[in-house]
Amino acid sequence: MSVTPPRLEIRNLVRRFDGRPVVDNVSLKVMPGQVTCLLGPSGCGKSTTLRMIAGVEMQDEGEIYVDGRLICDTVFRIPPERRHIGLMFQDFALFPHLTVGDNVAFGLSGSKDQKRARVEELLDKVGLKRFIDGFPYLLSGGEQQRVALARALAPRPRIMLMDEPFSGLDNRLRDDIRDQTLEVLKQEDAAVLLVTHEPEEAMRMADEIALMRDGRIVQQGAPYNIYYAPRDKQAVAFFSDIN
Ligand code: ADP
Ligand code: MG
């Protein structure tokens, strides 16, 4: 019997700026079909961790694996575009000069028909197929976010990295978009590493939460366990603004 490896595993990742560790020995796994959430206050090292996984920043120590295969350590490095990683960042805007369909097709290879079929499939899943030939400025912020999700998922990444993807959105829209996003991620069988500073978002979306502070993971487990059995006072304080 073979054991399924994690979609993503990072081991003992360290990143220092001016000698100060901002990511300090972080280890983490994301299993297939799961949303793992890296939750912590602003400045604790979440984005730096994601950038190293994406391959746009080098770690000082540690290893990164996708599907059990080493993609990066301190001497070996697969470039970002060959890591099979999808990215969705808050400031990762759509290309304004391309149609919605061409935005989604951007990272795709294959024949024109194959690409069109995949684009239609995804725009259908996010409920925006009617905008396929329109331009991004026609869409609301929430709709643009759904197109960005379709674009990130189009090449069937092995793992999706999402950095505060909903923080630019109106409060009233956010819960709906979170739920729709989860639904699409599930349909696409994606594994996700979601970064957020909002406990509420982690509780709503995560299968597993890793609580991060000052570059370290201080507690890890199912949302229920972290919420009801926080390990220390700072973890309690961090969750106390959920009502
Ligand atoms: P988060 O995403 O959790 O808010 P970041 O990963 O963006 O945190 O930043 C963690 C820390 O690392 C912060 O103190 C930030 O100022 C610092 N930092 C991030 N990038 C750099 C850089 N290129 N040079 C120096 N310091 C940096
Ligand atoms: Mg950040």
Automatic annotation (TrEMBL):
Biological process annotations from GO: quaternary ammonium group transport
Residue ranges occupied by any ABC transporter domain in the UniProt entry: 8-239
Keywords assigned: ATP-binding, Cell membrane, Ion transport, Iron, Iron transport, Membrane, Nucleotide-binding, Transport
Any one GO CC term of the record: ATP-binding cassette (ABC) transporter complex
GO molecular function: ABC-type ferric iron transporter activity; ATP binding; ATP hydrolysis activity
UniProt protein name: ATP-binding cassette domain-containing protein
Region of the whole protein represented: 1 to 243 of 360
